[in-house]
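Reminder to self: tokens first, then the designed residues, so the page reads top to bottom the way the pipeline ran.
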């Protein structure tokens, strides 16, 4: 199948691209940074997803994965508005099988930078809208909403022993996900899955269920 993934130069996006390539798919990547993926079935386009006029012309995409995003850097424009543009350009067409938006646990909890939370909350609502519109093609659209993931973007807290200890206190499984684990979820929701649609799948190691109930012993 023909797979389009945004934000493929590092972290979750790179792991997703490499998993699809490992399974024999043709993968196109869009990222504002240079390619770090080496494979004959991979084509890289170095362009900012907000640069609408210079986005590549790609037809008959079967799976679209909107992964590109940022934290506390024009989040509404990048995480939501550009994601919408990418989806309308490549995803709403009869050859599409699945669309997956990489959201965030913060879209569920509101616990992060204000514009980041708002952008990811918008992704959750837009996911439902798109699911309705691609259903006539027999296609699905979901969002995959990770909690903490071990990526370069999160190095500032991962490498801070005091902050990391506090974060682990809030995480029942006492660890964060790897990019490869999130990639497995992405593959399942787009390739294996053919019926679940319009849903926001929270994958956060149980952080959202940690109620911190305190009482006298």
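Designed residues (217 positions):
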């Amino acid at each position: 199948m023909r797979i389009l993934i945004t934000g493929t130069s590092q972290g979750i996006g790179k792991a997703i691209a490499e998993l699809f390539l490992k399974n024999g798919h043709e993968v196109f990547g869009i990222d504002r940074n240079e390619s770090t993926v080496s494979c004959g079935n991979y084509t890289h386009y170095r362009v900012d997803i907000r640069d609408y006029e210079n986005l590549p012309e790609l037809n008959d995409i079967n799976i679209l994965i909107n992964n590109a995003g940022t934290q506390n850097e024009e989040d509404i424009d990048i995480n939501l508005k550009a994601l919408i543009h990418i989806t309308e350009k490549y995803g709403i067409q009869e050859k599409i099988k699945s669309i997956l938006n990489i959201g965030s646990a913060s879209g569920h909890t509101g616990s992060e930078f204000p514009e980041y939370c708002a952008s990811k909350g918008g992704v959750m609502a837009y996911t439902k809208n798109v699911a309705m519109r691609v259903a006539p093609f027999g296609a699905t659209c979901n969002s995959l909403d990770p909690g903490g993931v071990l990526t370069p973007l999160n190095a500032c807290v991962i490498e801070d022993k005091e902050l990391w200890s506090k974060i682990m206190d809030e995480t029942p499984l006492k660890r964060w996900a790897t990019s490869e684990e999130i990639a497995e979820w992405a593959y399942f929701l787009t390739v294996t899955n053919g019926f679940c649609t319009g849903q926001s799948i929270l994958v956060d190691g149980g952080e959202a269920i940690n109620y911190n109930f305190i009482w006298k012993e």
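The CA atoms of residues 186 and 192 lie 10 Å apart.
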